[in-house]
Known about the structure:
By secondary structure, the protein is α/β, with parallel strands linked by helices. The protein has helices at 106-119, 133-142, 162-177, 196-203, 205-211; strands at residues 45-52, 58-65, 70-73, 76-79, 82-84, 88-91, 123-126, 145-149, 183-187, 216-218. 25% of the residues lie in helices and 22% in strands.
Amino acid sequence: GRAVGGPCLDQTSVDRKLEPGDNNVQAHLRIAPPRLWQLHDPYLYRVTVKVSVGSGHDDEQSVRCGFRDFRIEDGYCRLNGKRLFLKCAHTGNETTTGYRIAPGTEDWLRRDLVNMKAMGFNAIRWIVGMPARYQLDLCDEIGLMVYEESRASWFLEDSPAMKERFDHSISEMIMRDRNHPSIVIWGLLNETGDGPVFRHAVATLPLVRSLDDTRVVLLS
């Protein structure tokens, strides 16, 4: 259904016997034709999943999403097929009372995003660290594209655990945030030259593509 209310557009049910541990259950819904998520019309849908194991034993989870196509084609960025000039700045979520997010200052970070949109920016990059969930929710709502990278993107030293740490950071970022239509670019590194970390980041493209085969991926 539409994220702010409205009719149910499609539904389906799956009957499965679940084993202890992780279970992967797939279902398919069809929305045709979808209303596209645009910078000037950031239209959102809501997908709700309910697990029932008998009367009175239900668990329900909802997530918002949107439909859009962002690509770099013939040297130009295109959103839903239309060429656009990328106007982007970056943030480290610093606040005036401390490094990163100080308690009680969440509204300042919301205002940063609203002010960027008002000033004519159409994208924001979170450099060397992921945004808070509510920040991505706001970008979805106001039509601000996002270029996101994990904490492992900068100053990660080589060590016996480097590959595992890098893969964990990238995987968790993508799995947490891949339903946000505002996110159009995954970044792997920041200002990182050739070396063990750089070469491992290059090798992680198949991992990234296994988790999300739709978005632009920038190396460094």
